[in-house]
Amino acid sequence: MFRREVLKGAAATLALSCLNVQAQGAWPSKPVRIVVLFGAGGASDTLTRFVGEKLNTYFNQGFPVENKTGAGGNIGMLNVMNSPPDGYAIASATIGTLSINQFLYANVGYDPAKDFSYVSRIWENCNVVVVSADHPAKNMKEFIAWAKEQPKGVTFSSSGVGTTPHLAGELFAKRSGINGVHVPFRTSATIEVIGRTIDFAIDNVASWVPHIRAGKARALAVTAAERWPALPEVPTMAQAGMPDFVMTSWGAFVMPAGTPAAITGQLSKAIQEILSQPEAKERFLKIGALAVPSTPQETAAFAAAERIKWKEIVQLSGAKL
């Protein structure tokens, strides 16, 4: 009788396991929404939509993209955090929301290490110092000299307080000795910089490559350690005369905490396959970014390491909210 009961229990456990596998294997059985934390047309939005389109084909299921902006990306993160952990909500998170905002805001409303299940990194890019194509400064040295001559200082834009463009601009102003006035926007202020209502920006390369190539904007330097593949003709900050100024940004997909590992693993595997294709790599490079897929474990570890670095940068910049 004991053996019979053991066999019954084993059979029941096996049946339950099979049901769980079938349930997880059915994912996705309906559209999976991807929340972009910033406005349409920016780097995060453009690259996320490309991945979403590829996921549509890969899973034969819709992956619609929604833009939920505000508070440096925190609003969109909270929206996904409060969604059911059933695999049908993804946040296209950024370096800001996963490794910076918690050091800027008194209360972001979420813990990036505990309130999300990590899936994969998506993209990496650096920032580029840009001015209008008709700006009198042709290089970094000339721009700093010009900026110091402006009696009211100079303005620089970003896609929000605490974003890498904001922190980079603050550090640049301190290091160069110019009077920089920060003007935040909901997304990249490309029109304002090109039209010279804003003097300069240190913004994501991916947002600016099309305008630089179209001759509407002038790139003075990139914030990578080496010259960036999408703009090989543009010097690094060190080459332009400002050493120790390396700042890269990145994006990653995360889901609500508690999302089954089978789902995050399945999605991560799909993203790794998609972004390993030559077409994806070329598409990212044309936009100005690098495709950098990773496992859920690698993604979580990377974000944790970045928090250590950016905590120090935030403190150095003096930026607070």
Helix content estimate: 40-55%
Task: Work out the number of β strands.
Answer: 10
Give the low-confidence spans: 6-24
The total number of structural domains is: 2
The CATH topology of the largest domain? D-Maltodextrin-Binding Protein, domain 2
Strand content: 15-25%
Instruction: Return Rg in Å.
Output: 22 Å
Provide mean pLDDT, rounded: 90
Distance from first to last alpha carbon: 68 Å
Which series of helices and strands comes N to C? HEHEHEHEHEHEHEHEEHHEH
- The CATH class of the largest domain is Alpha Beta
Note down, in words, how this protein is organized.
The protein has 321 residues and is α/β, with parallel strands linked by helices. It has two domains: 30-125 and 248-317, D-Maltodextrin-Binding Protein, domain 2 (3-Layer(aba) Sandwich), CATH 3.40.190.150; 126-222, 3-Layer(aba) Sandwich (D-Maltodextrin-Binding Protein, domain 2). The protein has eleven helices and ten strands. The chain has helices at 2-25, 43-59, 74-81, 95-99, 140-148, 164-176, 190-194, 205-213, 261-275, 278-287, 296-317, and strands at 33-36, 65-67, 89-94, 116-132, 154-158, 180-184, 200-204, 217-222, 248-256, 290-291. α6 (164-176) links the parallel β5 and β6 (180-184). It is globular and about 65 Å long. Residues 6-24 have low confidence and may be disordered.
